[in-house]
């Protein structure tokens, strides 16, 4: 009983430190809107980088013809081809192929990686075009979704700032990834033009906008998090070039690095942040700061819960006399595990028991202990979802769409495994956004799951940017 009481104290402390009352969320949203404006004002003026994507024409739905897309961002890459039939028909056909990247290529040389990609792409093109001749004398157009930090100076170029996730190919850093890809395609004898370089957030925006002109933002809650939205070109003081004829510019926010003193950060998050700077960890654990991302994305939620469980076990022996080797292992408890535990509806929390046993070697747990575990998952996931909603409210605020009834609807397209699969996260995010914008404005604000933006979005942007329209 003493153990339970002490464990309850750990959970009560956590609950208090993770509280996100509406007043706090309003402050976070206001801070996000403020940082957005600062980031647009001057390069380096905000932790939120607000990068120009150079995408000034989003797909309208009227595009026609065959276009290719390439999606590189994780351990797989995908190639795809779409046939667009214009306003009535939209996507007539879509074929895609997923290819696993051999691990040795992820840390080899730039020419090996892009050579492999170009070779797979060439095979795909040859297979697809056997059935339909899609060219009609036009050059093939490709959109490239590359979800790593790049510095762009035009829509179809960008130098790699650094690798993240499992990639580390030194000689590619500082190089133009489009030029590398283009060069590799030429070597393959593949006649194709890279029309656009984008990331998954911009792809999600484009993919959803193609069907619905009310879409104003594309957001990812997956392994990491990021957001993009459509800004008026004349609201970007730091832009020195010629203003686009469309008057619009898609901004790649890179909002994972957002910071506000109002963010409810606990000792567990702080420890995670400090330790993530240790050398020897996987590259993606080294993203300095990125505190907003750590509080709201799939890579970290399981890890935060693990840290709370460890403290609860060491301080209160809530799991009895167990071996802590696994519970002490960083990133062993993953977000899909906490999602499964959080959604456990069995009366004796059988799934919680199973996950603790299989993943952390914690056996023979009491029902009381399991209930506390579920509550910890709830606290961590709910904080994530509410802060995520505050970020979205910040975008709406920046656009002046956050209060009162709007004549025009505002649709936010969201993709990513966390949003897609973690039901309680998604539901909490949606209801919190409603709370934040208020009943009237909520009628015109819609959150929508946009599937596969990073694949098809690239092809659609290639179509809208296409020089052969
Ligand atoms: P990426 O962001 O790497 O492109 P995804 O969008 O598919 O990939 O997101 C994958 C992430 O989604 C995983 O790292 C994990 O954190 C989260 N995720 C996947 N499945 C689930 C699940 N069932 N429950 C909760 N989170 C999940
Ligand atoms: Mg993805």
Automatic annotation (TrEMBL):
Top-level taxonomic group: Eukaryota
Gene Ontology BP terms: glucose metabolic process; glycolytic process; intracellular glucose homeostasis; response to glucose
InterPro entries xref list: ATPase_NBD (IPR043129), Hexokinase (IPR001312), Hexokinase_C (IPR022673), Hexokinase_N (IPR022672)
Domain Hexokinase N-terminal, chain residue ranges per copy: 11-210
Keywords noted in UniProt: ATP-binding, Glycolysis, Kinase, Nucleotide-binding, Transferase
A GO molecular-function descriptor: D-glucose binding
Gene Ontology cellular component list: cytosol; mitochondrion
One Pfam assignment: Hexokinase_2
EC numbers: 2.7.1.-
Stretches assigned to the Hexokinase C-terminal domain: 217-463
Pathway of action: Carbohydrate metabolism; hexose metabolism; Carbohydrate degradation; glycolysis; D-glyceraldehyde 3-phosphate and glycerone phosphate from D-glucose: step 1/4
Reactions catalysed, as given in the entry: D-glucose + ATP = D-glucose 6-phosphate + ADP + H(+); D-fructose + ATP = D-fructose 6-phosphate + ADP + H(+); a D-hexose + ATP = a D-hexose 6-phosphate + ADP + H(+)
SUPFAM superfamilies per UniProt: Actin-like ATPase domain (SSF53067)
Family membership: Belongs to the hexokinase family.
Cross-referenced PANTHER family: HEXOKINASE, HEXOKINASE-8
Name this polypeptide is given: Phosphotransferase
Organism annotation: Eragrostis curvula
């Amino acid at each position: 009983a003493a153990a339970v009481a002490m464990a309850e104290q750990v959970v009560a402390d956590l609950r208090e430190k993770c509280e996100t009352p509406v007043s706090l969320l309003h402050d976070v949203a206001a801070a996000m809107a403020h940082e957005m404006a600062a980031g647009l004002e001057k390069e380096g003026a905000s932790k939120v980088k607000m990068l120009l994507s150079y995408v000034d024409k989003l797909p309208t739905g009227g595009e026609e013809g065959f276009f290719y897309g390439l999606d590189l961002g994780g351990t797989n890459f995908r190639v795809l081809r779409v046939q667009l039939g214009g306003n009535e028909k939209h996507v007539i056909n879509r074929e895609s192929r997923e290819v696993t990247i051999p691990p040795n290529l992820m840390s080899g040389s730039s020419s090996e990686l892009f050579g492999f990609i170009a070779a797979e792409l060439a095979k795909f093109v040859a297979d697809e075009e056997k059935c339909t001749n899609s060219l009609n004398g036009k050059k093939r157009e490709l959109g490239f979704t590359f979800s790593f930090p790049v510095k762009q100076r035009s829509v179809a170029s960008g130098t790699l700032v650094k690798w993240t996730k499992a990639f580390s190919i030194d000689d590619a850093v500082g190089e133009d990834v489009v030029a590398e890809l283009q060069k590799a395609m030429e070597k393959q004898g593949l006649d194709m033009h890279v029309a656009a370089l984008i990331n998954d957030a911009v792809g999600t925006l484009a993919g959803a906008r193609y069907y619905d002109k009310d879409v104003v933002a594309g957001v990812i809650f997956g392994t990491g998090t990021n957001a993009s939205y459509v800004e008026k070109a004349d609201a970007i003081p730091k832009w020195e070039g010629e203003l686009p004829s469309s008057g619009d510019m898609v901004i790649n926010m890179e909002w994972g690095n957002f910071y506000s003193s109002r963010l409810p950060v606990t000792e567990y998050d702080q420890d995670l942040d400090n330790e993530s700077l240790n050398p020897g960890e996987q590259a993606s654990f080294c993203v300095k700061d990125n505190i907003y991302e750590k509080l709201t994305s799939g890579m970290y939620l399981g890890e935060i819960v693990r840290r709370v469980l460890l403290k609860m076990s060491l301080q209160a022996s809530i799991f009895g006399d167990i071996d802590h080797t696994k519970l002490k292992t960083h990133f062993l408890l993953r977000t899909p595990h906490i999602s499964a535990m959080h959604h456990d509806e069995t009366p004796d929390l059988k799934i919680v028991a199973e996950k603790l046993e299989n993943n952390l070697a914690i056996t023979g747990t009491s029902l009381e202990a399991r209930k506390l575990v579920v509550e910890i998952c709830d606290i961590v996931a709910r904080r994530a979802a509410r802060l995520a909603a505050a970020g979205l409210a910040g975008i709406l605020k920046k656009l002046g769409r956050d209060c009162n009834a709007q004549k025009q609807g505002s649709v936010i397209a969201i993709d990513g495994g966390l949003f897609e699969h973690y039901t309680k996260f998604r539901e909490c995010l949606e209801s919190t956004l409603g709370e934040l914008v208020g009943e009237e404005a909520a009628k015109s604000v819609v959150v929508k799951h946009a599937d596969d933006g990073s694949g098809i979005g690239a092809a659609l942007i290639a179509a809208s940017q296409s020089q052969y329209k």
